[in-house]
Amino acid sequence: MTRTAREAPHHRNLTCYTDYGCRRPDCVERRRQWQRDLRRRHREGQPALVDAEPVRRHLLALQAEGISTNAVARTAGIDEWTLRNFLPSPTGKRPRKHRATPETVRKILAVTAEQAAVGYRDGTGTRRRIQALVAVGWPMRRLAEHLGLNPSYVGDLVRRTEGKHLIFSATADKVAEAYERLRNEKPNRHGIDARQVRRMKKLAAERKWPNPDYWTARMDVIDDPDFQPLYGVTKREIVAQDAHWLIVQGRLDRASAAARLGVSKAYIDHAFRDHPQYAVDVAA
């Protein structure tokens, strides 16, 4: 019985040769070059492979700064899947690679966040623009056709940019341009069903996503991750937040905190009752 050869998913590293039996001339030459490098390291007394733990720690540190594995791979000139194998998988499985060649380690450790971030930017403004359009009734998947993005990617983009994850500058520009076109448009004029519009508005209201009207007077800070919009937040909740901070960090009692905020102690009591997540048990 004959077996059908599997087609390699790509031809960028040795796996197509070793795992898929690929014999394309450029892939064969890549294999030969790897063998030549291995023999040279043996002659010079260099280890063929070294511990990859420093690589793993470096990649995780870059991820904490919002740098994607793809950006590191592009900067280092290494295949993205090679880098992914140094990290635990999303399912929690252990990393596949625990050792690497000294050259690979050197290339990866040389990548800085500043180098890898070229062509990328913070995604805060992109997320806020998408959320603002949802707040007036646009479903994310229907926004995709106007943003020039894959429908399944729009929601993922919003979720990932809740952290420090950087995005392509080109993606941010696409969303900003589409936002300017759509922020004054009614979704139903683009074929969005009225029920979908109501559902999206309800979703955005529950999550306190500011709408385009809110951002119109604040376009200078829409991209600022340090600006925290207090959209849909009542005065009582704001007082509860501020009183919590004054009592915990400023070590004030409720009466002193009330005086600082210009409200009565009873107002703080009511604010804590309505928003118990901020309540602090201290003496009056």
Helix content: 40-55%
**What is the CA-atom radius of gyration, in angstroms?**
27 Å
Number of domains: 3
SS element count, helices: 16
Mean pLDDT: 85
Secondary structure: number of strands? 4
Strand content: under 5%
Uncertain segments are: none
Order of helices and strands: HHEHHHEHHEHHHEHHHHHH
Placed side by side, the strands forming the largest sheet appear as 1-2
Largest sheet: 2 strands, antiparallel
Supply the helix-strand structural class. mainly alpha
Span of the ends, CA to CA? 85 Å
Net shape: extended
Features:
3 domains; two-stranded antiparallel ribbon; mainly alpha; two-stranded antiparallel sheet; 284 residues
Account of the 3D structure:
This protein has 3 domains: 50-116; 120-216, no CATH class; 235-278. It has a two-stranded antiparallel sheet. The protein contains 16 helices and 4 strands. It has helices at residues 15-18, 25-43, 53-64, 69-76, 80-84, 102-109, 113-116, 124-135, 140-147, 151-160, 169-182, 194-206, 212-216, 235-248, 254-261, 265-274, and strands spanning 50-51, 99-100, 120-122, 166-168. The N and C termini lie far apart (85 Å). The chain has 284 residues and is mostly helical. α8 (124-135) runs parallel beside α11 (169-182) and α14 packs across α15. The mean pLDDT is 85.
